[in-house]
Amino acid sequence: MTDLSGKTALVTGSVQGIGLAIAKELAGAGARIAVHGIADEATAQAATEALQEAGAPEARFFAGDLSQPEEIDALMSAVADWGGADIVVNNAGIQKTAPLAEMPRETWDAILAVNLSAAFHIMQAALPVMAARGFGRVINIASVHGLVASKDKAPYVAAKFGLVGLSRVAALEYADQGSRDTGGVTVNCICPGWTETAIIEPQVAARAAQMGGDREAGIADLLSEKQPSKRLSDPSEIGALALWLCAPVAHNVTGTAIPVDGGWTAQ
Fold it and tell me: Which NCBIfam families match (predicted)?
C-alpha cells in the first residue's frame, strides 16, 4: 500500500466528483489534503470532514478562482505557508458544448483559463519546490479529449490537448530531479473517458430527452458511440490510479497520458 504519511497534496476542484474521489484516495494513504474549489462554507466543510474521515491527518479548504492568475498566486502562497504541496492534482475544469461557429468568445477564454492556463501557473509555482525536495508528483486530469477530438467541444479539446503537451514538457524538464530513493519528480496525465460526474450531466440529460426521458437509456446510447466497454467509470477508479502514480515505484513513470476510457482511444 502506498504510504503518503508526511506528504501534502493539493487537489483542485476537490469538493466533488473526480477531485474529491482522488483526494479521498490520497487521504486514505495518509496525506494531508489542501482542498480547493468554488464552494460555499457548508460544501467546503463537508468535503474537509469527509477527507478526515477517509484518513487525512489534516484537511484544509483553500479558495481561489482559477480563471484569475492573481487568485492562483494567492492560493499557492497560502498552500506554501501551510507547508507546500508534495503532490499536485490539477483536476478543476469546466466545459460547455457548442459548434465552433457558435462558441462564444468568452466561453473559449474561460475554458482555456481554467482547464489549461491554471495548470501552468500552479505547476510553475509547485515544481521548483518539488525539485528542491527530491520528490514531487503532478497529476493533471486531462481527458480522452486530450487524445482524440469530438464535435462541439473546440475549447475543451484544445485545452486538454494543450494540457497533455504541457505535462510532457514539464516531465522532461524535471525528469532528472531527485532519485529512486527520494522518489523523483514526475508529471503525468490521466485521461478519463465517460465517467459518472456532474460535468457530463448536460449531455446525459440531452440524450435522455431523446429517449423519452429514460436516463439509463440515454447513458447507454451515449456510451455506445464512443466507449466500447459500454460502462461508465466511477470516480474512485480514477483516484486509485492517481494514488498509484504517487507511489515510489512510479518514479520512472513520467510524461504519460493514461486513458481510462473503456477502449475509446484504442479504436
Answer: PRK12429.1
- How far is residue 51's CA from residue 33's CA, in Å, rounded to a whole number? 8
Determine the structural domain holding residue 95 and report its residue range. Answer: 8-193+234-259
Q: Which pLDDT does position 104 carry in this prediction?
A: 98
In the sheet with 184-192, reading across from the earlier edge strand, the strands are 59-62, 32-36, 8-11, 87-90, 135-141, 184-192, 257-260
Residue 215 lies in a domain: yes
Q: Choosing from 135, 156, 174, 194, which is the catalytic residue?
A: 156
Same domain, 158 and 218: no
Q: Judge if pTM exceeds 0.90.
A: yes
Q: Give the residue carrying C-alpha cell 480547493.
A: 36
DSSP label of 234: P
Answer whether residue 45 is part of any domain.
yes
Active site residue 174: no
CATH at residue 23: 3.40.50.720
> Do 181 and 200 have their domain in common?
no
C-alpha cell at 263: 477502449
Per residue in 88-121, pLDDT (tens digit) is 999 999 999 999 999 999 999 999 999 999 999 9
Reference 249, options 181, 176, 173, 177; nearest CA is 181
Q: How many Å apart are CA 120 and CA 166, to the nearest integer?
A: 8
Provide the greatest CA pair distance for the chain.
58
Note the pLDDT of residue 202: 86
Helix (H, G, I), strand (E, B) or coil at 262: coil
